[in-house]
Amino acid sequence: MLAAETGPIAFPILTAIVLVPIIGALMVALSPRSRPEIAKLVALLSSVGTAALTLWLMASFETGEAGFQFVSKHTWIEPWGISWHLGVDGISLFLVVLTGVLFPLVIAGIDPHHDEQPYLAWMLMLQAGVLGSFLSLDLFMFFIFFEIVLVPMYFLIGGWGYENRVYAATKFFLYTMLGSAFMLVGLIATVAIASRDLGRTTFDLVEIAEGADFAASTGRWLFFAFAIAFAVKVPIFPLHTWLPDAHTQAPTAGSVVLAGVMLKLGTYGLLRFGLYLFPEASYWSRYLWLTLAVVGIIYGAIAATMQQDLKRLVAYSSVAHLGFIVLGTFAFTTQSMSGGVIQMINHGVSTGALFLMVGMIYERRKTRLIAELNGIQKVAPIFAAGFMVVMLSSIGVPGLNGFVGEFLILTGSFLTARWWTVVAAVGVILAALYLLWAYQRVFHGEPDEENSKFHELTFKEGAVLLPFLGLIVFMGVYPKPVLDRIEPSVSVLITHVEEHTDFVEPRPTIQLGEHADGDEGGEDE
Amino acid sequence: MMPAQFDTFIGPEVGWFALSPVLTLLAGALGLLLVGALTPRWPNGLYALVSAFTAGTAAVLAMFQWDDITDNGPTTLVGGAIAFDTFAMFMTITICVAVVLVTLLTDDYLRGTPNDGPEIYSLYLVAALGGIVMASANDLIVLFLGLETLSLAFYVLAASNRRSGQSAESGIKYFVLGGFSSAFFLYGIALVYGATGTTNISEMVVVLQSAVDLFHPDSLALAGIALMMVGLGFKVAAAPFHVWVPDVYQGAPSPITAFMASAGKAAAFAAMLRVLVIALPFYRDDWRPIIWVLAFLSLAVGSIVAVVQTNVKRMLAYSSINHAGFVLVGVEAAAHQAGEVDAGPGVPAVVLYLLLYSVLVIGSFAVVTLVSRDADGDTSLVSFKGLVSRRPALALAFTIFLLAQAGVPFTSGFIAKFGVIRAAVDVDSYAIAIIAMVSAVIAAFLYLRIMVSMWLDDPVEGAERPRVPFSAGLAIAAAAAFTIAVGIFPGWLIDAADTVTQYAR
């Protein structure tokens, strides 16, 4: 997994992807206060520009190539061995694209109701931070992007959220920062210890992962310092308690972004900075993570069932879904891990869309309580149909995207973590229970007086929702292009783990028709 | 007889040009006092301008000296009493920058008060002079002279608002406790002198390295070190010697508080490094655990107690204790390799922290000064409510300073904290590094509370729109720009700080 020395194209596309939103944010912040439409236009142009860049990145990405592509590396803080080092591989590619595509939709489709200019500036800052985290190949850079996303998110929740927004924003900030506190110490220790192996101080992820050889006990301590930060971010049970508050109190756009991409910083971090940097420690502690993942799946599902607030229900369903991703990650098979990566995208799309639609319900009814909603299907059939597709995708119904990810995770995990998988499969059934039950209560039946005035989906809302629905169906029916790009990188990552441990990946006994080619391609390398 | 005596007395080589930063400050201070007293009132702002110009000149001269030192190596001056090394110059520049910023801030603050004259500025320059002498002392007696010069100026400054009872109380408290701690420090010097037979740092190092044996009264030296650490602990405001800080910081006029928290703290830490790391590396295993405990207590008290405060100045006072804890983490890291040829990253991290924190804390108190001035000196959290709708630029600048103090990336505060934690981890001091980071999270709650007041609360009915005078605005803008610029491009400063371990002795 060595970084290519020069990218296939000269244009520093990754640097541009990070810088365009920053420049956009600055321009929004400096735009005249008297003309808010200029700020909106700049924000839209900047986010659409970023989206175009990420789509171009996807188009020019070399399929079947496992290493980092489009690498851009410049010395930044020389005395500390820190460089501006960006790169993308199959694991981060679609997260970058998702981040690029999600923001213009959110910026165009959701109205913050007041103080639009700072709101847009914070949104763009947030986008830059998230993109920077996904693209960084330098520990220092990753940390600063990972940490900086807290600031815009804090202000978005605190400034544009609901009743308990200040409490939720503060809790979110402090929880995540506490996790990062351990990561910072662990990160510096990693560099210090690796420098003894490498002979020089460097924060370069690839150099450390390939060159340093941590003693087992050292590596485990360091791994846990990183893992705590990621576990808070994912969030993994029992560090999840900030999430329902933050999700529920955040403005709709905040919830969509939080669920869509920010939680993935945790799962992505586990793959990139957990498994890749510390393969021995990750493999050694796998049963802990598998257990926590399964507990999260079941707990999240049960907690979601009991919620009276629709947004809180979706928030708890996130805890369950992310449990699947963690399960797939720590089952250490190409199938399960690829499933985990693709499930990150799926969860971003479907839960993002769910939050979007719950936001639309709130706009119309000024309530999120399930008990006060009923019979919406009668008055707004198109809205109900859209919600149903999104919900079914979240449940994991075959033909929609959620199924692909969950199925790959469960089949892959069954080979190495049989009993955990068995319990996790129950979570799939529970997901159907809480989502269908909520759907039944909100949409079925006869609408009462309040709900009979429920607006049908407007054209603008439909236009924002359509890309989500398109992705849900496309990735459910034809996930091959996505899997083809993910699998080589995942497969190399597993080989990396095999090299550092006595783990041998079991050969899958079930071959999936659609995904057999990619799997073999990965193993041949 | 007289001529004969003259023949035998050989004065020490002084090196006048090498001392030029100190001499400039002295000339500025005396000039302001003498000329200011003998001439009619100068036009508005001229006293401040002269003061800022003097400090700026001293800083530029220090930069020239820096080049000289990197070319010719460190040396000592005035018969070995003053160290002429990059460490001294780094601290000189730090203190002079603090003087310039605080002077800009003070100018408008003093307008229309009975204090509007040359005295305050003269005291700033005298205090800076004392601080620089502390940082460049190569003799414990000289160091004590610097300490007293600095402290006496601070006592007067703290009590300088004659119309405020709080200010007088603050001055008295600081004076009584400060005098007490100076006595401890002096007694410590005496005991160390008894143990080593010298007060000169160069000679002390030689004596301790070559002549330590069973006949030397070790306990005398240890007692001396302990007493000196009490005195230094008071000056740097480390817990458990921190009790004066909240009261003094709250009571003193805000620009003076800014000066005490920046230049005062920087000079005190410089003195601590001179005494412990440079003069007494031989005893590092004895004093290091004490530093560890001081660091732990400062981190804990500075963050936990800060959370329950409701007055912004008190909050910042406690946060300064927390920052002192961070600097002590760096000192603890430096202790592991004190006296070795490879001095490690501890001392560079400390001096870098001091410079960056000085700018941050002056910026923070500058905003407090402006906001409280138009609220009749009210510095409670309430007076910051809805600042963003009254003065967006001021609120933004304060947010930058607070985020930097919390250690958020892309600000100088992150670089400072990163450097210290890196130094600690480098010598395997993991425990204190983790404690420091966790305390930073607790302290972040405090900064968030201030930000919530500014951004998310509605302004109180009838709250004034704070006036931002040009000079203070310039100081805040410069501090904010520096905070962000160093956060993004810290390489040059880190390079400079890395050279300070070539001590003269």
Give the strand line-up of the largest sheet of chain A: 1-2
Which segments of chain B are poorly predicted (pLDDT under 50) over 5 or more consecutive residues?
none
Instruction: Assign the structural class of chain B, choosing from mainly alpha, mainly beta, alpha/beta, alpha+beta, or little secondary structure.
Output: mainly alpha
Characterize the overall form of chain A. Answer: globular
Termini gap of chain A: 11 Å
Q: Which term fits the overall shape of chain B?
A: globular
- Biggest sheet overview of chain A: 2 strands, antiparallel
Could you give the distance between the termini of chain B? 37 Å
Rg from Cα of chain A: 22 Å
Radius of gyration of chain B: 22 Å
- Average predicted local confidence, pLDDT of chain A: 85
Mean pLDDT of chain B: 88
Write down the secondary-structure element order of chain B.
HHHEEHHHHHHHHHHHHHHHHH
The count of β-strands of chain A is 2
* Major beta sheet summary of chain B: 2 strands, antiparallel
Ranges of chain A where pLDDT stays below 50 over 5 or more residues in a row are 1-9, 516-525
